[in-house]
Design a protein that fits this description.
The complex is a heterodimer of chains A (about 260) and B (about 325).
Chain A (H helix, E strand, L loop, with lengths): L9 E10 L2 E11 L4 E5 L6 H7 L10 E9 L2 E2 L7 H7 E4 L11 H5 L9 H14 L3 H4 L12 H14 L4 E5 L7 H14 L4 E5 L3 H7 L2 E7 L5 E8 H6 L4 H7 L5
Parallel strand pairs in A: 3-8, 3-9, 6-7, 7-8
Antiparallel strand pairs in A: 1-2, 1-4, 4-5, 9-10
Helix pairs in contact in A: 4-6, 6-7
Chain B lengths: L15 H39 L2 H4 L3 E2 L4 E2 L2 H32 L2 H14 L4 H28 L14 H25 L3 H9 L4 H12 L1 H17 L2 H6 L17 H8 L6 H36 L2
Antiparallel strand pairs in B: 1-2
Helix pairs in contact in B: 1-12, 3-4, 3-6, 3-9, 4-6, 5-6, 6-9, 7-8, 9-12, 11-12
The chains are: A alpha/beta (about 260), B mainly alpha (about 325).
Chain lengths: ~260, ~325
Amino acid sequence: MSTVAAGELLATQELSAYYGSRQAVADVTIAFRRKAVTALIGPSGCGKTTLLRCLNRIHEINFDARVQGSVLLDGQDIYGGDMDPMAIRRRIGMVFQRPNPFPTLSILDNAIACAPKGLNRRGKLEAAERALRSAALWDEVKDKLKTSPLRLSGGQQQRLCIARAVAAQPEVLLMDEPTASLDPIATAVIEELMSSLCKEFTIVAVTHNMQQAARVSSVTAFMLADETGIGRLIEADDTGKLFTKPSDRRTEDYISGRFG
Amino acid sequence: MTAEPRFRRVARFVSPADRGFAAVVYAGSILFALLIVGLFVELVLGSWPSIVKFGPAFIFSSSWDPITSKFGALPMIFGTVMTSLIAIVLAAFIGIMAAVFLADFAPRWLGQPLSFLIELLAAVPSVVYGLWGLFVLAPFMRTTLGPALQHVLGWTPLFSGPIYGVGLLTGGIILALMIVPTVTAISRDVIVAIPRDLREASMALGSTKWETAMRVVLPAARVGIFGACVLALGRALGETIAVTMVIGNRPEISSSLFAPSYTLASVIANEFTEATTSIYTSALIELGLILFLVSMVVNALARLMIWSVRGSERV
Ligand SMILES: Nc1ncnc2c1ncn2[C@@H]1O[C@H](COP(=O)(O)OP(=O)(O)O)[C@@H](O)[C@H]1O
Ligand SMILES: [Mg+2]
């Protein structure tokens, strides 16, 4: 695994995740390339979402969830005893499978939901514009900033959620199948956005769509559940290499469509 | 871009069973409408002598003296509105906080039994609350809570004057206790129904559970919670026996929350059997009419507010 290198912004070591007594992910060690998109692919139920949710400590809000191993952010274990999960989550933003803007806030307030506090009106507007521009949404909503986000299309709502995450100025952006609920046109817009956002952020994106992984990512990690249903990392490599010359037999089977 | 699919209306076969069911449902709803109209007409007829004799002064006059046949409803309207206001303010605050705790903070082993207990509390007969109010709360108000409040807030007219134990505040607190289960149980259900997605969105932005509950979950649940409060307020307005036992039953308007007062429902319950003259009976029925109208207006206003909030949020 050529991509596992020291000095990356985000890396896991021997990471395992559990729901109660049920283990969902086992022994994942991977380093995510800085300012690039890493795609997590694999069949349904192989633990992609669970792994992703361990990376910003949102996994632990499930009442019986547990994590073993470590996740290093800038060399520091985010599961270390003195780490504040809230602070971690502000450094590692997340976009979910279904768009989830705050329904009672306006588009503007959604965009700056976690921008620095104490901004005046002008500062807020500027922060919102910056966030919305980086989510490629500004032109579409600049005339209706005060309206409800629920009036936007699904793709626009998802970009609003990206803007909201970006406004917190995180270092890493986690995306869990961000286009799973969108139509092809909206999907293309988001994919393009991911390619531009990775100039600024380290992105880890789950997808079960291999074409998407090939289009947007520079590194792809393939996960698979073993016979007991525990998800494991099979291999991670440059996307081009993984799709043409995978080193593991199971990866080859998966990308050639023999299962999953 | 993910537009809702549009369905075309297609003429369909309606089975006789469906028709029959529809007829029953329609008949049922018409019956309810008739019942309400009938009740209203009956109240107007019964109070007609009093309406004719006293006119609008009935509502604005504050003397209630059956001996001299002077009937003014203002003290009772005041008592009813004040006790209900005290009750809903206390119950909304406590009930909503309890609902947030039960829905988002309590561990399962605690949340389930607590929710059950609270629903049980709603089933306690009001006369039992009344007894408790009379023998426990009223003395406590006279000896401890009242003096303490007066010590801190005595400079406002609301908390000045002699403390009898029974009075507006005691009545309001009893009412609050009675309606808190309603507020809690419904609010809890509404909060539980808020999608997990939203909570996760907020947590993933680095908010604490508490911030998430206050800034995201409660706002998203506000329409339903408001509905819960209105339902509870309706119960508070009409509640009779428990309030009658602790409010002091004196038809006077005082600026102090410690002063004895009277409510519309209490007067009717207390005096109907001793109403000897027909104008006295008629005046009592007019009190009932006023209570009926106040409840209707409160519910109508609430409905309007819910619609306007929904209208501004929905597509
Ligand atoms: N909240 C949960 N409680 C218990 N098991 C879960 C929960 N969420 C996911 N799982 C289990 O963990 C495994 C991995 O799920 P997930 O990470 O969602 O897979 P993927 O995202 O790759 O489809 C699955 O077997 C699933 O059943
Ligand atoms: Mg998933």
